[in-house]
Amino acid sequence: MAVAGSGWGLAQLAEALGSSEQALRLIVSILMGYPFALFQRYFLFQKDTYLIHLYNVFTGLSIAYFNFGMQFFHSLLCVLIQFLILRLMGRTITAVFTTFFFQMIYLMAGYYFTATDHYDIKWTMPHCVLTLKLIGLAINYYDGGKDPEFLTPEQRQFAVRGVPTLLEVSGFSYFYGAFMVGPQFSMTDYQKLARGEMTDVPGQRPNSFVPALKRLSLGLLFLVIYTLSSQYISDEYLTSDDYMEKPFWFRCAYMLIWGKIILYKYVTCWLVTEGVCILVGLGYNGKDQNGNPLWNACANMKVWLYETTPLFTGTIASFNINTNTWVARYIFKRLKFLGNKLLSQALALFFLAIWHGLHSGYLVCFQMELLIVIIERQIIKLIQDSPILSTLTSITVLRPIFYVLQQANHWLFLSYSLVPFCLFTWDKWMKVYKSIYFFGHVSLFILLLVLPYIRRLLVPRKEKLKKAE
Questions:
Q1: Which residues of 303-317 are buried (b: 16+ CB within 10 A; e: fewer)?
Q2: d(CA 33, CA 177)
Q3: What is the 8-class DSSP label of residue 400?
Q4: Cα separation of 42 and 21, whole Å?
Q5: Residue 3's pLDDT is what?
Q6: DSSP H helical segments within 263-395, as ranges?
Q7: 278: Cβ–Cβ under 8 A, 6 or more apart, which residues?
């Protein structure tokens, strides 16, 4: 629920732009990160850390109130309780489990009591970002009490050694550049930012104007593309009678284009907020082998890879990077004791599904992701191991044809998986899947069954290869 009153003129402006007021407030909020970052650069760089924490709390809470009114108290309550958990339970596994269950249950309750059958921008949107941030803080704080010898290099890097104050935890939680839509970052990086250490020139402000403006410009470009395209491509059309009456080939082609366009709203937000993080210095990630500064610490998108990869795994590696990295670091790798990589991956995806929301569509989407990744890896291995297929795919003149076919197939199945993710409820996504005869599920399960037999036909046995040698 946005702040009451149209005195801001945002309702009229949103109507003129063909947008919702909530969406316009979101865009304004993430763009406000740039003047906030400029103020911090010029007036708070290397000042007392408590001033920076206070500034982040004030700006973050202002953004929360601007978007959700008094519902900002949900985040405030969870931050306060999280601080108490850290202080009262200390660096214990009990604190980690208490944090995990409390923060996730609070988020799930929020989803349950605010649920509708369409996507709404409400307080649970930034709260899901905050939930990951606070769980990660608890785990890093727990790691900080261990002997460094028993930690992995990654765990040592993010372990929180000191005891964060309430002001520090609040500043970390409400940092204006990441409060609404992310990205995720660690307490250790935030502490470095507050101390003025996130810079390519020690003791001076970071030279990050140009990298920040590049990400902002790229984000605004995607915003324009999405805004213009959304006039013709929409979620609503997928469930319309007109769509159902179109030929099968049209329904598939429309779905492919829809899936490509619909994700640009996320791409826009992540690129714009990444620019804010770069501008203030949080995006600093050391230097490359040539001594050039890297500004990708808060990157949530690898745009070139995202636009050019013909592989589903390539899209995963280029989209929502920080969230995927968080899940890999705090869920997937922490399940190593199970001794089963596939099971750990399935549980990590299940966590991602319920973290997104309680709608059935999320579970179906991430189940499809797991299935597609498994089959894609099998196909890649088959092509590598088969002399016939590896020779065929290495023919230069055929590569452009294979690339176009791969891209079409890749985006068709990705869009197929996005249908339940974007339509949420059973009745909506089931209606669309019925209209296209569940071709995605049918194709994938057939491949899952026949690929072992195809492999037997096309991949020579090792014994025969040895004799041939």
A1: beebeebbbbebbbe
A2: 6
A3: H
A4: 32
A5: 53
A6: 264-280, 303-308, 312-318, 321-327, 341-356, 360-385, 387-393
A7: 208, 211, 212, 215, 284, 295, 298
This prediction has a pTM of 0.93
Nearest to 348 by CA among 300, 316, 376: 316
Q: In 10 A of CB 240, how many CB atoms?
A: 11
Distances (CA, A) of 333 to 148, 255, 323, 345: 17, 35, 14, 9
- The Cα–Cα gap between 294 and 296 comes to 6
d(CA 295, CA 266): 20
Looking at the DSSP bridge assignments, the partners of residue 293 are 287
Note the pLDDT tens digit of each residue in 335-382.
999 999 999 999 999 999 999 999 999 999 999 999 999 999 999 999
Residue 130 has which token pair? Answer: 């905050």
- What b-and-e string marks burial along 92-113, b requiring 16 or more CB atoms within 10 Å of the CB? eeebbebbbebbbebbbebbee
Of the candidates 448, 375, 456, 362, which has an alpha carbon nearest to the alpha carbon of residue 409? Answer: 375
Residue 121: which residues within 8 A CB-CB, separation 6 or more?
Answer: 20, 22, 23, 25, 26, 67
Question: Tokens for 372?
Answer: 């597609």
* Per-residue pLDDT tens over the stretch 384-408: 999 999 999 999 999 999 999 999 9
Reading the block at residue 35, the tokens are 């003047």
Q: Measure the CA–CA gap between 61 and 73, rounded to whole angstroms.
A: 9
Residues with catalytic annotation?
320, 356
Mean pLDDT of all residues in 313-336 = 95
How does 170-195 read in b/e, with b if 16+ C-beta sit within 10 Å?
bbbbbbbbbbbbbbbbbbbbbbbbbe
Place of tokens 């049918």: 442
Are residues 264 and 226 in contact, defined by beta-carbon separation less than 8 angstroms? yes
CA distance 62 to 56: 10
| Confidence tier at 4 by pLDDT (50, 70, 90) | very low
CB 180 within 8 A of CB 29: yes
pLDDT digit string, tens, across residues 168-204? 999 999 999 999 999 999 999 999 999 999 999 999 9
How does pLDDT run across 218-253, given as a tens digit for each residue? Answer: 999 999 999 999 889 999 999 999 999 999 999 999
Cα–Cα dist 166/53, whole Å: 10
**pLDDT band at residue 15, thresholds of 50, 70 and 90?**
confident
| pLDDT (tens digit per residue) in 70-121 | 999 999 999 999 999 999 999 999 999 999 999 999 999 999 999 887 778 9
Select from 141, 133, 162 the least CA-distant residue to 89: 141
**Class of residue 289 by CB neighbours under 10 A (exposed 0-12, middle 13-18, buried 19+):** exposed
